[in-house]
Amino acid sequence: MFVAIHDLSHRFNGTDTLFEHVNYRFNQGQTVAICGPSGCGKSTLLSILAGWEKPASGLIDREGISRIGWVFQNPYGVPERTALDHVVFPLLAKGEQRRTAEHAALDTMRLFNLEYAADRRFSDLSGGEAQRLMLARAVCQRPDLLLVDEPTAQLDTRTAHSVSAVLGQLANQGMIVVIATHDPNTRDACSRILDLADYAPDSASDSDADTAEVPDTIGKVAQ
After folding, report:
1. Can you give the residue ranges of every domain in the chain?
2. Quick check: 164 and 185 in contact, CB under 8 A?
3. Residues paired with 3 in a beta bridge
4. pLDDT tens-digit series, residues 55-89
5. Considering only CA atoms, which of 147, 176, 174, 159 is closest in space to residue 111?
6. 153 vs 8: CA distance, rounded Å
7. Any residues with CB less than 8 A from the CB of 5 and at least 6 apart, and which?
8. Residue 44 CB-density burial (10 A; 0-12 exposed, 13-18 middle, 19+ buried)
9. Cα 60 from Cα 24, distance rounded (Å)
10. Which among 55, 63, 121, 180 counts the fewest CB atoms within 10 Å?
11. Whole-angstrom distance, CA of residue 113 vs CA of residue 132
């Protein structure tokens, strides 16, 4: 099971190129951090990996990927439903019995220190609790490919450290985990790093060429 990208480049209509010539292979059992400055295309790359966005150029190979989980940066839920309902729902949708599904859901919520909030309504959760709940729901589905966008953005430092550690261990469950992040702790918890800053369009050569002409011009004037 893997996802491989070959000579991938992307830009949106009317905008500059975000990244270009990216070659990378995401393998089963790996947790990969996608890093880089704001606006470099981290979330866009997640969309391309999921198949939601078509790259401007390049190819993507997916082998053995049948279930894709996505955790957005901003959590969304049903205000009046409980936290447990949110994690249980995808399991019930697959045909599992409620009791079995609840047991699995609570075990997963425990990974993210959320079992105490099982009976709370989604509307009563804090931003950090809601974010961890979305992570628990995605993990409970056991996706082949789990895509996570800025998972610690709404968490305090202590909770962020805990969540980063859990995310770093998820690949041990047999999935591919890809995390777009600015958080150095999350990055360090991952087994591999893909830095999109290394694939930014290179305009340095043009600048160097312009600069190189300056001394010659000055020399001619001096003569």
Report:
1. 1-67+143-223, 78-141
2. yes
3. 26, 62
4. 999 999 999 999 999 999 889 999 999 999 999 99
5. 159
6. 27
7. 22, 23, 24, 25, 48, 49, 58, 59, 60, 61
8. buried
9. 10
10. 63
11. 8
159's tokens: 């909770």
Find tokens 């950090």 and name the residue.
128
Angle at 64 between CA 62 and CA 109, to 5 degrees: 105
Smallest Cα–Cα separation from 142: which of 113, 177, 117? 177
Length of the chain: 223
In angstroms, rounded to a whole number, what is the distance separating the alpha carbons of residues 207 and 23? 26
Amino acid found at 49: L
Please give the CATH number for the structural domain made up of 1-67+143-223: 3.40.50.300
81 phi and psi angles, rounded to 5 deg: -85, 150
For residue 196, the SS3 value is: helix
> Which pLDDT belongs to residue 215?
39
Q: Cα(53)–Cα(184) distance, rounded to whole angstroms?
A: 27
Give me the amino acid identity at 62: R
- pLDDT for position 166: 87
Which of 103, 159, 102, 109 has its CA nearest to residue 135?
109
